[in-house]
Design goal:
heterodimer; A: 478 residues; Rossmann fold; GMP Synthetase, Chain A, domain 3; 9-stranded mixed beta sheet; 4-stranded parallel beta sheet; 12 helices; B: 83 residues; mainly alpha; 4 helices
Chain lengths: 478, 83
């Protein structure tokens, strides 16, 4: 069973009529989803052999899920992108990934560079084809490339094999005991690694995945009502949204009797909000999952409700997915060896293999008296904004490219309830206006990477050794 | 009863803490704050700010786009609960 979707295909034979996906009023049974996937897969297989890459440019939902399953079925590697990203960034990634197709819906967008082939999903008709899964797939074949913010100034593609994603999804299925009786709430976009649980763990176990309508994230009570009405049993999401629900989600009045498991990852969950949430949902088991996109989940902590203390950050826990963790003595950096690990970074049509067995996370950790790993921040400047990785260097590169900017330094400002946000200290050239720069940034960076604050400066503060004094800049924003 | 200080204080908090708008003076009280970048995390902080600053309790069930979409909407929402 090499292919990541083998489990889903088994389930579609075992329980064809069971509901696989729900999106608002639309729903597809396992049989219907498999048929839709096969139609698309047959179409793709007629175009080219597998082992190539296909961009998925679709909103999170049934269509995107079917397209992803179809790609994997035919042996292609899927690259999910955010349809709302600026065109320039999308074109950069599509170029970098050297893709066969861009799968979307409707007319070809004007911004797409002309040499890329657009495939309108609506034009793929239902067929009676019974395409078999590609025989070319082996455990090391690439299943997906997830693009994240890059410290060199451009997005970088984390290449993940069938082996890597399967290892995580199997671990998650066993650890969280996902079964056919589960209703899984799904909010993470497919370009976010949390979605591998929603899609592959759930469907391999025969569970039902229900896509949360995006607008509900602005109305916490309505989101809680939705979780209740849809009998959600399991949800894997980011702490910032769970904090919102803990504080403003009407959990005092709306019952969630079916909810049994909440997993969270992507950023630190402030302990006071977690305590509030665990008190409001005493029957629910909570898990803190930790790991960068490169390793997926390599460490986890089943939340021990009795020992939560407002003033102590929660641990990231113990090794997950049979990972081996070591700490570099000099720096305290966590290194991870795991079957989950990435195959390498994708660069300009080529894979740069990671030769070392261990992946250096850049996270500073220690081990507490219970033998649990604890996270103490970054060794570099990387930020976590609403669960997304943000490299200040990528934002700086964009801003510094504006002719009105002499120099710009991006730092993170931290809010106790909502986590980190990027902010920019900026030296403007004479006559330049912040308004032009703001417009420029909107054309180049996704919303979560845009600075929420700017401070114009005469000079960038430096330490005596000439290096940028980031602490002084942080103080200027305080 | 009108509360003329609501909007200036909301403008100051939102533009300094939550979203960046290049020319706040040109951002009218009817402009769409959600389109300008106010997201779920921003809404959470905004609601907590309003409750602390203006001494009102805003029901969880009313935290939704129609009450948050603009300064005018926010003002009306606060006034509804002020007395």
């Amino acid at each position: 069973m090499t292919n990541l979707i083998s489990g889903f295909l088994d389930q579609s034979s075992k329980q064809p009529e069971h509901i696989a996906l729900i999106e608002g009023q639309k729903q597809l049974s396992y049989k219907e989803l498999a048929a839709r996937g096969t139609s698309i897969a047959s179409f793709l297989s007629r175009q080219a052999e597998g082992n190539q890459r296909i961009v998925i440019l679709l909103e999170r939902g049934i269509n995107a899920a079917a397209a992803i399953l179809a790609c994997l079925h035919s042996g292609f590697c899927y690259i999910p992108l955010d349809i709302n990203n600026p065109a320039e960034r999308l074109n950069y990634i599509i170029e970098d990934a050297d893709v066969l197709f861009v799968i979307g819906q409707g007319n070809r967008p004007n911004w797409l560079n002309t040499h890329h082939t657009w495939l309108d999903l609506d034009s793929v008709k239902a067929t009676d084809d019974t395409a078999n899964p590609s025989k070319q797939v082996n455990p090391e074949s690439l299943a997906s490339i997830l693009y994240t913010s890059g410290s060199t100034g451009n997005p970088k593609g984390v290449a993940l094999s069938h082996r890597a994603i399967s290892n995580f999804t199997k671990w998650a299925a066993e650890t969280f005991q996902i079964t056919v009786n589960d209703n899984i709430a799904s909010l993470s976009p497919f370009y976010f690694d949390l979605s591998t649980f929603d899609l592959f763990t759930s469907l391999s176990q025969g569970a039902t995945v229900n896509f949360i309508p995006k607008k509900l994230t602005l109305s916490p009570s309505k989101l809680t009502e939705w979780l209740s009405e849809n009998n959600i049993t399991t949800w894997y999401t980011v702490p910032s949204l769970l904090s919102f629900i803990a504080l403003k989600g009407s959990l005092e009045t709306i019952q969630l009797p079916k909810l049994r498991t909440i997993m969270f990852a992507g950023e630190v969950f402030p302990t006071p909000q977690l305590i509030k949430l665990t008190k409001l949902l005493p029957e629910v088991d909570f898990y803190n999952l930790y790991g960068p996109t490169e390793t997926n989940v390599c460490c986890y902590w089943p939340v021990n409700k009795q020992c939560l203390d407002n003033n102590i950050p929660i641990p990231i826990g113990i090794p997950a997915c049979s990972s081996t963790l070591i700490i570099t003595p000099e720096t305290g950096e966590l290194q991870v060896k795991s079957k989950n690990n990435l195959s390498g970074y994708w660069q300009k049509g080529q894979l740069t293999s990671i030769i070392e067995d261990y992946y250096n996370t850049g996270d500073k950790v220690s081990i507490n008296s219970n033998g649990e790993y604890c996270y103490h921040g970054r060794l570099d400047r990387m930020l976590k904004c609403s669960g997304f990785r943000v490299e200040p260097a990528e934002i700086e590169r964009v801003i510094n490219n504006h002719p009105g900017v002499e120099q710009c330094v991006v730092i993170g400002i931290t809010d106790p309830t909502s986590g980190q946000r990027p902010a920019a200290a900026i030296i403007l050239n004479q006559g330049a206006e912040l308004s032009e720069i703001n417009l420029f940034i909107r054309q180049k960076l996704p919303a979560y990477m845009r600075p929420c604050k700017y401070i114009p400066m005469e000079t960038i503060p430096c330490l005596t050794n000439g290096k940028i004094d980031y602490l002084a800049i942080e103080k200027a924003f305080a | 009863m009108s509360q003329p200080t609501f909007i200036p204080k909301l403008r100051e908090f939102i533009f300094q803490e939550l979203i960046f708008v290049a020319s706040p003076d040109q951002f009218s009280d009817d402009n769409d704050l959600l389109e300008a970048g106010l997201d779920s995390m921003g809404i959470m902080r905004l609601v907590m700010f309003i409750e602390d600053e203006f001494g009102v309790t805003l029901p969880d069930t009313e935290i939704e786009p129609k009450n948050i979409k603009s300064f005018h909407a926010l003002k009306a929402w606060i006034e509804k609960h002020k007395n």
